[in-house]
Amino acid sequence: MDVTVTTPAGTGRGAWPPAFVVRVGRLAVTIALTFLGLLFVTFVIGRVLPIDPALAILGDRALPHVYERVRHELGLDLPLYHQFWNYLVKALRGDLGSSVLTGRPVIADIRQFFPATLELATFAIVLGVVLGVPMGVWAAVARGRWPDHLVRVLVLIGYSVPVFWLGLVGLLLFYARLDLVAGPGRLDVAYEYVVEPWSGIVLLDSLRAGELRVFRNALAHIVLPGSILGYLSLAYIARMTRSFMLAELGQEYVVAARVKGLSEARVIWRHALGNVMVPMVTVIALSYAYLLEGAVLTETVFAWPGLGLYITHSLFNADMTAVLGGTLIVGVAFVGLNLFSDVLYTFFDPRAR
Amino acid sequence: MTAARVRAWLLADAPASRAQARLGRVYLGVAALSKNPLAVVGLVIVAALVLVAALAPRLATHSPYGQDLERRLRPPEDAHRFGTDQLGRDILSRVVYGARVTLAIVVLVAVIVAPIGLAVGTVAGYFGGWVDGVLMRVTDIFMAFPRLILALALVAVLGPGIVNAILAIAFTTWPPYARIARAETLTIRESDFIAAVRLQGASPIRVLWGHIVPLCVSSLIVRVTLDMAGIILVAAGLGFLGLGARPPEPEWGAMVSEGRQFLLDQWWIATIPGAAIFLVGLGFNLLGDGLRDVLDPKAR
């Protein structure tokens, strides 16, 4: 696809604009179109829905002239394309409308709820990468022997288990029976409001304030939901690492490195894994994005006050502005992570530059 | 003796009919699959799901809806192997009938999704140009949302219920199929036999429907099998959130959700239906993995 791929190495170096800038530019156009599409989808969903936004605010017994005025204020009497344009302009300004339930701008609500999701997903992805990559390597190196089978079974379980059920079983075992971890929520009631929110991420904020007791309590709360989500990303990451590693280990440079007399550890962990990490960047970014999805169910089980809980809670209160705002933000995060991984890919892989 | 002859007939180098050739290929596939123990386990689980769904009235010891408030929250015992729930309903019977709901969801989603993906993908791949551009952009947009979240928003609009849940899942599941069908079409489009059909004056619809679609179907079927576990998990997730089947329908995800408040004292209410979801998901994943190994040795 890319023209520069065919130019011999060296000649492409001094060209202006550099190939990777062109690539990123092209990507930006694609992403802009996708964002437009995201907005369009949420707009369409918002317009087909049977809940009348004006009625949702006023209630059923609104007087006709008041109803008409609210419809006018919300722009519902304009033609659809005009409404979409207004929606687009507002969304680009960061205005996603006001939540019917809380009466606050949706974007302010999301800003308040998002850090909790971010904290959970980050905890999970760190776990997934730290454990998943070595497991995948291990399985690939020991192909066909027991470590490979073990990893395969672990991966399959991770792909098959309903995350909400795993959460409940985890609560039952580790919280109720063994009392190893703290229960649902982010903090015990006694520790809430002790630390001034700064980033909204409790683990960071408590450390910053030097409140070690709060930190320990937050850690006891996040361990279980974080590990459960982490297991899901571990399954995906280990599986992908394994298959990428198998491809690399069959390459000639691996044979060459071995013939040169490099230690097996160096061949595997430095040479082969070094090349695997390039496509793995995409995999990790993608699984980070998928954690946002898993977070909806996990947050419900663990009463974790994040974006997922916000979306479902709004949903049950017929607060569609909030639901669609949340959906849009998740979509944007999803696309953003994809873009980010593509840019990183271009950066790490010299062939793509 | 006859078995050996059947085998020889199946494996004939020069099959006399189309049916013979097809059966021979199926036989080879089954033989390869049966050498993979994990895939066999998967097949057994999936077959068990189908059987349980078919024989639900015989396997269930009680009515899945029948309440018995005097015997509520009973632990697993002889009369109720899996115990009873908060309304005294027999959990075993509800899990058994839940197999029907799960199977219905999976089959319906597959039946809706495969034709849509096939239509979008083959048209985009065959015509190329701006048709391709527009269709693939649309596909990308749908892929830009995490599935559960988009399904959530859709069910919110359509209203909760099993039919709407199926529609929402289908709506969020088709894009990868369109991608696969398009990729297949792109390679088929350039082959000589398509050129020959075209030269004979076949219309694009005839070329697509009669010659390209049949060749895309097999890879699509494999992909659907691989996706079944994911579909089950999304459906169960929607059920758990209260957006799938309405009570008192015995849907596994909804059953887990109902049992949540009794988790600490009556663990069986929430955990048993969840275990059923897990088992069926595992079955489809094992089978799908085995199928992929058989049909695409490169992907191992």
What does this structure look like?
The complex is a heterodimer of chains A (353) and B (300). Chain A has 353 residues and is mostly helical. Chain A contains 13 helices and no strands. The longest helix of chain A is centred in the C-terminal third of the chain and has 39 residues, at 264-302. In chain A, 38% of the residues are buried. Chain B has two domains: 1-35; 38-295, MetI-like (MetI-like fold), CATH 1.10.3720.10. In chain B, helix 5 packs antiparallel against helix 10 (204-240). The mean pLDDT of chain B is 83. The chains are: A mainly alpha (353), B mainly alpha (300).
Instruction: Characterize the biggest β-sheet of chain B.
Output: none
Largest interface: A-B, 51 and 48 residues
State the helix count of chain A. Answer: 13
Structural class of chain A: mainly alpha
Write a compact overview of the structure shown.
Chain A is mainly α and 353 residues long. Chain A has helices spanning 19-48, 53-58, 64-74, 80-92, 106-141, 146-160, 163-177, 202-209, 212-249, 252-259, 264-302, 307-316, 320-348.
Task: Produce the secondary structure layout.
The complex is a heterodimer of chains A (353) and B (300).
Chain A lengths: L18 H30 L4 H6 L5 H11 L5 H13 L13 H36 L4 H15 L2 H15 L24 H8 L2 H38 L2 H8 L4 H39 L4 H10 L3 H29 L5
Helix pairs in contact in A: 1-4, 1-13, 5-6, 5-9, 5-11, 6-9, 7-9, 7-11, 8-9, 9-11, 11-12, 11-13, 12-13
Chain B lengths: L1 H9 L7 H17 L2 H18 L1 H4 L31 H37 L1 H15 L3 H12 L3 H28 L2 H8 L4 H37 L11 H8 L7 H29 L5
Helix pairs in contact in B: 3-5, 3-12, 5-6, 5-8, 5-10, 6-8, 7-8, 8-10, 10-11, 10-12, 11-12
